[in-house]
Amino acid sequence: MALDGPELDEALAVARRVVGEAVALLRARHASGERVEPVAFKATIFDPVTAWDRRIEDLMRERLGQLAPGVPIVGEERGASSPAAQAGSALRWLLDPIDGTVNFSHGLPLYGITASLEEDGRPMVAVVAAPDLGWEVFARRGGGAFTGDGQELRVSATADLERAILATGFPYDRATSHKNFAEWEHFQIIAGACRRFGAASLDLVMVARGWLDGYWEADIEAWDLSAGALLVEEAGGRVTDITGEPFVSDTGRALATNGAIHVEMLEQLATVRARRDQGGGG
Ligand code: LIP
Questions:
Q1: Which of 131, 140, 225, 266 has the fewest CB atoms found within 10 Å of its own CB?
Q2: Looking at residue 197, what is its pLDDT?
Q3: Closest CA to 123 of 93, 154, 144, 143
Q4: Is ligand 1 within 6 A of the CB of residue 77?
């Protein structure tokens, strides 16, 4: 059963409140710019976990359990609250307590706290906050995307790839990160500029705000992409798989643009893939 407008508004209010509380907790106890030692590493030493990743996710899960009981939750640090959530249940919250943990642990302010509510695999409600930058942006499907102080987000109008500024990211796993090197090199040559900020959720916010014209990435996680994808769509942009198939956060792949350069970026991505498949490097 599809969530109706008032239910989406209510879910958005819950998401904003929970993300807001997470930001407040972090701000009260963590000084901006402070280095934070990892408490653990995931598969490799390039993928750290800090105490804050866990503390924030625990707070968000606890508050969602109180404010929206019964909805499955999937989070980066604590996993899926039920097997159904993992498999993509009808309704689920996706949480990334710190997107851009490497930046965060080095005191770099480019990291985000994200929450999205997906229904049948589609993000319906999204909030991304960047505590050290003072950003909060949110969207609900069909209702537009806004900053916390009420400005509507609109994507850029850049229609020419040579004038476009793009961003991407690379997985922590060095065994697979090279898979995006050929794409990076290609766009570095043909696009106006390429950037690598280290937090997918903020890359997507920057597309939604019209500061970037496009973003692509593969091999990351659903919670890195889901909230930002809705922000871009609600700001008038377009989000698909990097192949042009419909966007599904669980694939860990996305191409998000202002819409005007989308087809050209899809074509360029296909060209690089074809070259790689023929053994032409990358
Ligand atoms: C990060 C992403 C980034 C990607 C990193 C990593 P995390 O998320 O936001 O775009 O390039 O490898 O996945 O793990 O810091 O939440």
A1: 266
A2: 98
A3: 93
A4: no
